[in-house]
């Protein structure tokens, strides 16, 4: 009887079984190689559904987008190869620069808030005080609410005759309504507020998980050394959740750069007066949908967003690697 | 092994690139003389018929139409599909891209034009010559796309609406409700008066003007040959400057800068606006949703310095239908005089058949608001025109609204804003988008 020296796949798993079974199984694997082949195929069979759906709904459209970016395709007719014309048009398109500026600004303001505010919130509810559970739930409610529903609610509140303006008027703070939804910067600010309000609970939960990994002993030791609340926060909490902060920074920067729903809903799909609060994703949606969609140009815009997003992720990952090496 | 993997990867990428081709859609192209033969086949087999947000109100009517057609032509089967108003153009574009357009499609001018240009609709001049005589001349003409070289849809129902006023706001502002505006100049003057008297509490206007309003005011939108947009004329600039003044005075609600016509209706319903260009449908909605506004409603003829505006719904037939004879027969059936009249009565709209709104029903005023709107609208129907132009697209409408918003909010001069809007519109028209 031949005994295989290097059992593979299913055979390798079989060798961990009882000795009396082992000999028979090894024999079968060696005889036909059927189990070995079966072992190689099994993971692919499990992965097949996911791989096919990824291929059809992600990889294929992605490759299609790359091709279309170099054509003048519209929704109703196939396009011709036009080289870099779409990218050159982009450079001269004021709407693109406005959208890029708005998306970048969104990221610059929203990301620091998303990194620090949920951490503070997590620390507040990471106590054993009575009622902390209630606050955890309350902060998480916006996360499970539909962004569209949240956006509509805030658009009613921030309307020129909405609750916020009426309250400010009743209190005598203002005489004329504040144009929260009809002035570029105020509209952007309102959308950022909604993004932060909705996202706080989500990132708070991530931080809560990270905080449970920070040893209580470190806080006790720091306290014994006379460290106050701030010192403990800077010297114990932040180093303890640094990797999570990088993760939150990466996730929120990509999400902020790709902001769409908040501006779309608050501006009633108009991107504010004169389209001045347009973001890059809104521009892609506007150019690339409808019967007169310019699919080639929309694909070129999508490709640029993809490159920027990948760039952001690489920058964050490098930052994390550098921190870990220190 | 590594070589095989690389080869497989390279093959799959190349295949993707080749398969994706250079486009998403593809349904377009020359129909190679198919249109002439379209009506010649036997009326049999299954077709699909898509309407635009009509199921909620008129389910029974359409089920009857389908039943009658199927009985009249044994062996036929009509699958009726209704799509919501929201995203209708997007649904059509997805269907067109996937070559799955319904056989018979409810369209308006802006959704029909791109499909016609892409030759995704049957050219009725070839498929059904002489059909035009069965429809109102104006309605048939409005479905004539010179740049696409033919007629691509049967006119269906027409709508033209009155002007609605919330007299409650006039009274609150201390204004005379017996002298409601009848011209644009009166509208602008009274809007200023209302803003001043109510200290900007109430506003008259809720939407920035599009090319249809410009045309109704008397501004030339396109040149006579209909090849170039020309609304950046001194008259156009003077017209938009009026809106700048009105906005500064508080006669236009702030939301008008960044919201479209849907919100104008909502703001009128909520009692924030005193003026709304409406329709019989709007009156019904107000009665149901805003009784306090409805009780102060005044119904007046449409404000215009020119011909009144109207909107046409049409029915087109997909160029790729497998049962073209059945699809054409059904499209003709839905839009024939008898069915049009029945639907017009059901939906408070007007037929586009050659008799138009001559039937007694459209001119009998029984004293109800619905009848008042109907009679007013029927009277202005003979003179009404559809204010859309070759190359008019959603993108162009959006761009104009944005440019005027920039001008009104002082971010751009009126002249520059209109020059930019005209340049964009001309480019769109030239590109055939």
UniProtKB/TrEMBL annotation, chain A:
PROSITE patterns: ABC_TM1
Region called Disordered, residue ranges: 1-34
Membrane-topology annotation of the record: Multi-pass membrane protein
Transmembrane segments: 44-70, 104-125, 137-157, 185-210, 295-317
Residues annotated as domain ABC transmembrane type-1: 100-316
Keyword annotations from UniProtKB, A to Z: Cell membrane, Membrane, Transmembrane, Transmembrane helix, Transport
SUPFAM superfamilies from the UniProt entry: MalF N-terminal region-like, MetI-like
Protein family: Belongs to the binding-protein-dependent transport system permease family.
Name of the protein described by the UniProt record: Sugar ABC transporter permease
Species the sequence originates in: Streptomyces endophyticus
Taxonomic lineage of the native organism: Bacteria, Bacillati, Actinomycetota, Actinomycetes, Kitasatosporales
Automatic annotation (TrEMBL), chain B:
Transferase is among the record's keywords: no
SUPFAM superfamilies assigned: Periplasmic binding protein-like II (SSF53850)
Domain of life: Bacteria
InterPro entries linked to this entry: Bact_solute-bd_prot1, SBP
Annotated keywords: Cell membrane, Lipoprotein, Membrane, Palmitate, Signal
Protein name: Extracellular solute-binding protein
Organism: Streptomyces endophyticus
